[in-house]
Amino acid sequence: MNTEKQSFNVMAGIRIAAVLLLLAACIKVIQPFLGALIWASIISIATWPYYRWLAKHMGNRDKLAAIAIVLLLMIAIAAPISVMAVKLAHSLPDTQTLETLGHTPIPHAPAWLETIPLIGHKLNAFWLSVQADVPGFIEKLRPTANKAALWILEQGASIGFSLLEIILAILISGLLLINGDKLWDGANLTLRKLGGAPADGLAEVIARTVRGVSNGVVGTALAQTILCVIGLLIAGIPGALALGFLCFVFAVAQLPTLLVWLPAAGWLFYVGDNNYGIFLLLWGFLLVNTVDNVLRPLLISQGAQMPLFVIFMGVMGGLLAWGVIGLFIGPTLLAVALTIYRHWLGESD
């Protein structure tokens, strides 16, 4: 009897080890595509209602509706990031640029510079020293400029890789949408197998959370970014697309977007372009900020309310873990994890 029991335990251990080994091997295989797969799942869940509506109005042509969704996502997400990557590559400082700067005369320091408390005198002295020897100052900057160029190149490569992940995720999301009904049934069955009766309805709760974060947080950030970039382009601000990306990061992280457009308006006033400076201030306060205050509560009401620190940690952690694509993945994953935890607490009460 003991021999049979020991034999059974050994066989059970072998089965468990085999399953774990298979699972580890599968994770190793899909690891390079893990970010794209996760985001594809998020996209498909977030766009499912729109996909079903579109398919219905296209005569139940599911594949055609999925293709339309994929094309729209490519235009809305992949295309702007592609343009930004190209602009970033063109912004690399070169030797000719430094030589040109070395022969550019520096204007006299503004009168108010020396009146700045504590550091005004030092700033004025530094300005005078640069004005007296511009070529020498440029030579001192050359090593820093080379490092900056290398950093920009690295970021461009990172954005390029993230762009490939984004394109892959959008394409995969189209396949997930086409097979959405089967995948939904499989997800419900899997959750029921893992969690039993308490897991009933959990898939719907998770889906609402994903849509709430995607639409309320990411959707609002995209709307703010589009308006911000339009305002920056109209005002003639250089590097508007790069500033727009920064605006998107701030908006998703729940930081005020005025950190982007307010300094830009200040720069316009500094160079004497008061009309466009006033325009950008009004554009920012009346449009960019208003979208955040009106659109976010309307869209995020579809899912559970998420604490600010959860969204912030998701954005920062996702950005560090997956790069640009992590801006979308990070906050959604943490929101889903928090929702599952809340659901479990509710079922255990």
UniProtKB/TrEMBL annotation:
Keywords, alphabetical: Cell membrane, Membrane, Transmembrane, Transmembrane helix, Transport
A Gene Ontology term for the protein's cellular component: plasma membrane
Coiled-coil region list: none
UniProt xrefs under InterPro entries: AI-2E-like, Bacilysin_exporter_BacE_put
Membrane topology of the entry: Multi-pass membrane protein
Keyword Cell membrane found: yes
Membrane-spanning residues: 12-30, 36-53, 65-86, 159-178, 216-235, 241-262, 308-341
Localization annotation: Cell membrane
Domain of life from the UniProt record: Bacteria
Family: Belongs to the autoinducer-2 exporter (AI-2E) (TC 2.A.86) family.
Protein name: AI-2E family transporter
Protein source organism: Craterilacuibacter sinensis
